[in-house]
Amino acid sequence: MLLLTFGLLAVVLGAFNLFHELHSKQVDALYSIIAIVVGVVWLACIVAAFRGNPIGVFGTALIAFVELGVISQGHFSSSAGAIGSYVRLEGLPVATALMGLVLACVLAIMAAIAGWGHTAEYSRQRETLPLLIVAVIGTVLAILEATDNVHLAGNALPGFGKTSAEDGAFVAALTASLWLAGGLWIARMRRTGAVLVAIATFGVCYSFATLHLAKGGTSLSLIATKSGLIWAVIAVTVAVLGAASLLAALVFFALAVMPPRRSKAAPAAPATQRSSG
Questions:
Q1: What is the model's pTM?
Q2: Same domain membership, residue 92 and residue 32
Q3: Cα separation of 197 and 132, whole Å?
Q4: How many domains does the chain have?
Q5: Band of the pLDDT at 270, cuts 50, 70, 90?
């Protein structure tokens, strides 16, 4: 189900990005035709993977990996299609779509690896559900916060500190991907999920401290002035959710690695021997 969800999301966002690339004349008609054909094959692989076909699973992951590499080189590096110039041509929503595409590709690859040769099993454990809900909300807000940072960087402000908009946006998308992946898998793989959530949320908290609290960063008051109060609220909310998730992930990890307690059962009474004679 996860492979289907994030695979379809990647296809939709990829098509959205292709339209804007063609509109901004960053790609030509031949490239667009080839991309559409690959998209159709990708969609067929996703459907086959949902039906349990291992070739479909492999094809979905392979095309997602290729797509991740293409957009990384095309928009998250110093090139003609760098995200800063791309946003100036096509508008800020393309930055959100690009980071969402990175997230969808990463999660599709991880879902394919996790599901390779294994049937999906539904976990009935409910204690990790709040962590998943927070991860979903935090991931969406983290992508939105990074979108505003791209906007600030385009206005000659340190949206990502000393990091370029391309590198900052890509790191933000990967961090959000790890956060959501950890929230999705912590119910079945407690240690792995907790580690992913802890790594991602530590990055979120560290980024908030260095970008918005440290000297020389972009203060929350400046964000409220340049972008609007809602964007400052989003930045604070992401940091609060990240800090809470970090503490929860550390607790879950500690409980997972601790040896189980042995119940102190009452010692069995010695067996009485039957006397002979």
A1: 0.85
A2: yes
A3: 10
A4: 2
A5: low
